[in-house]
Design a protein that fits this description.
homotrimer; 349 residues; alpha/beta; UDP N-Acetylglucosamine Acyltransferase, domain 1; 3 domains; eleven-stranded parallel beta sheet; 16% helix; flat
């Protein structure tokens, strides 16, 4: 499969400069691209590589339009164009419709004939699987789960009973959707379990990374809105709602009943406590715990800066005495103020 | 399935006030409950919803007994009663005893006839599975594993060889019990593996959340005592012991050979270093690393408070200079003290 | 299976002192060892147990050679010797070559006759599985995956298409190798997916803990070099490279395109941001976020020290005012300096 540079721009947008007839088969980095490959400049720190790249063509921003003589596509959003070109050159393998002989499908499940159910998959009673959807090897789809069209579940995804998944979901291996939330009540020295009778409801165009877990609601549902992108090993507790087009990096934990707005971005290993409201367009730094609601868009952080172990040790010990330091500071300010008075008196006596 | 309010109180405790004949089919939040549903007030911040709820009845604390005219059950522990009522109204589906045709069961395994082994499950040599236990789809039960009665393993749980599990365990999908602990020794520039020959031993009434991992002991066992409740994506290293009725929120990591007391509560994404002792009834805040043993019950924390990115940046830079700040503070105190002497002398000269 | 102390030393090294004919069947802690077991002292805090242990023999460092009269092996590296003795006494179960009847193997896969493929495993088109390799229950091996010799995959490991794994890999249950990296580009209010067309390439002698995830590269490969040891629940993003013999504890997250040197050690729940370079022999403390490249070997940390909740609250509030404190400190220094001038003037006036 190959396209000329002119064909690529015609399909995906951007303005061609230089030879539009150069033929492109793959996409690669500036450093490694070959003559039949297209590369891209989206991060200025790689600009020097433009001079040495062997790429047959390059995708660039308008501001860099003249930074090379190579055949190029100039775009208002070169990173998005790079994504589109890569998708064009690397289509997903075609789906083989049908149900593998080893899969176990309940008699009452409804599976679209265009869908594919792989080896060792299990589909429960009353489950519905949409058109062109792929259920990977060893996936378990619980009773009465509803899965939309063009969904792709990689091997060993589990979806518990009654959950609902929209169109175009991509869920990677080890994802668990709809396990019980962590609901317990202390009663005379023992924890008793609170049944988790809500569901997980996932909108359209969501992607979920490997080994991420999304718990079902305690009473109402846990909701993942359209276009949400979740990286690996994220934990989303019961009754969380994640607003449309929010992107969350790996290892984040979100506690129960928190609502996150649309178009938020949450850095790796961050956390958000329960029962909070996070506004739209909030950006949270990696390793930051959000312990109060955020009402206003903007960037928030709480990262302890690292240093050499000895330095850290010398400095960190004072964190337990900050309040005392603050008191001493205050006292000194009063003493200095009083000394200034005395000195003034002394000098003018 | 439905119960009158009077029947519910008679079975589960609490004092009825108002019409005990109102018929209840489900439990819900104050905001969403309908006329055939019971709701509850356990968090004062929802008290205003009592005035507008459409619930047929409500569960309340003694202190709130007169806060509504709705039919109600008044309880000394309304949260626990809510849990019990929800369990009454939402029983688990009945177990279908028997072994699915696709499951692979070793000839020497012993499975109680009342147990259920689902599709694609594998049960190893010499394994024992108790009465009324459910082994979900695709679970792998290793050789010589012993599983008690009324256990429920959701799909794709793995239990490695020789581990022992008590009665009433609930383990959610993706749980791995008994993988090798992280035992390595450096020898002439290469890590060599230390065989992990201990087991995991789990008591009764434990729940383990999705994708949580509990490693087997290096020499002795890793032990989870009765009534422990573990949320999702927790990592418990080799030779840890967790005391009875301790509850641990999601994403916590506990390093090797640490012993945690009974009735502890550990917040999300917290961590505990290895070879430590944590007393009974210790509460650890989210995102807090415990780096020394805790000998005394109480609440402990180490959370860096978040702020707007610019403010954080301005403040955090000083963390690398706290010791210098402390030295300067000390020096100033000495100078002020000496200035006071001088001023005194000056003024009295 | 048993060995005399003299036989053990002859096979594995070290110098015997005392009765070399004592017969050893197992290894255990000083506290629990019996007369037919060997124990070891590698941590001085257990030295007192030498006096009371019932072990038949002990492994010790040269410096402790005379700390007991028990039969003993004295070694320059007693911890490594302990590991070797334990491996000698606890060999892995022998492999049963062959393919389980329930496994689903593509016609074009190539599986060495000495390999073992367990129940419910799936092996894709063109996959190659080496000699003496074990593919555990329910593993999914994608199309064109190449797996070396003497590899051991525990149940339910997933390896996505085209990934390459060297000899002697041990991967525990729930590991996912080669899922898509988190590559998205914002385009007119929607995230679009960047195809992840790189692979994961893993060297020889690597171990990977339960539920750890290693994402495939976006364009180039993600690389794990020889001898790397990864604990449980680690997340390794696309295009990361981990240098040989680096060891990483549980729950660590490493963001995209970061390169980590050889012989590094990374503590539990630490994190490393993307596009960074970490030198060889860097040691990173638990719970530490590395936000800049590290060019120099050494130990680095950023741990907020925990304290009782009330103390923490009192102290932590000042973290949001550190810059103001620093300004006040500076101002006071100037005032004191000016007071000293004034007092000097006053006193000498």
């Amino acid at each position: 499969m190959s396209y000329t540079l002119a064909e690529i721009a015609a399909r995906l947008g951007g303005r061609v400069s230089g030879d539009g007839q150069v033929r492109i088969r793959q996409i690669s980095t500036l450093e490694r691209a070959q003559a039949d490959q297209i590369s891209f400049l989206t991060n200025r720190k790689y600009a020097a590589q433009l001079a040495t790249t062997k790429a047959g063509a390059v995708i660039l921003a308008e501001a860099d339009a003249d930074a090379t003589d190579l055949p190029r596509i100039i775009s208002a959003n070169p990173y998005a164009l790079f994504a589109r070109v890569s998708s064009l050159l690397n289509p997903l393998p075609a789906i083989q419709p049908g149900i593998h002989a080893s899969a176990v499908i309940s008699a009452t499940a409804s599976i679209d004939p265009s869908a594919s159910v792989a080896a060792m998959a299990v589909v429960g009673e009353g489950a519905v699987i949409g058109a062109h959807t792929v259920i990977g090897e060893g996936c378990c789809i619980g009773d009465n789960v509803v899965i939309g069209n063009h969904v792709r579940l990689y091997p060993r995804v589990v979806i518990y009973h009654d959950c609902v998944v929209g169109d175009n979901l991509i869920a990677h291996s080890g994802v668990v959707i709809g396990a019980d939330g962590f609901g317990i009540a202390m009663d005379e020295g023992r924890w008793i379990k609170i049944p988790q009778i809500g569901r997980v409801v996932i909108g359209n165009d969501v992607e979920i990374g490997a080994n991420t877990t999304i718990d079902r609601g305690a009473l109402d549902d846990t909701v993942i809105e359209d276009g949400v992108k979740l990286d690996n090993q994220i934990q989303i507790a019961h009754n969380v709602r994640i607003g449309a087009h929010t992107a969350i990096a790996g290892c984040v934990g979100i506690a129960g009943s928190t609502t996150i707005g649309k178009y938020c971005q949450i850095g790796g290993s961050a956390g958000i406590l329960g029962h909070l409201q996070i506004a739209d367009s909030v950006v949270i730094a990696s390793f930051t715990l959000i312990a109060k609601s955020i009402r206003e868009a903007g960037s928030y952080a709480a990262i302890y800066p690292f240093s050499k172990q000895e330095e850290w040790r010398k400095n960190a010990v004072h964190l337990r005495h900050l309040d005392e330091m603050a008191q001493r500071l205050k006292k000194m300010e009063q003493e200095i103020s009083s000394l200034k008075q005395d000195t003034l008196k002394g000098n003018t006596a």
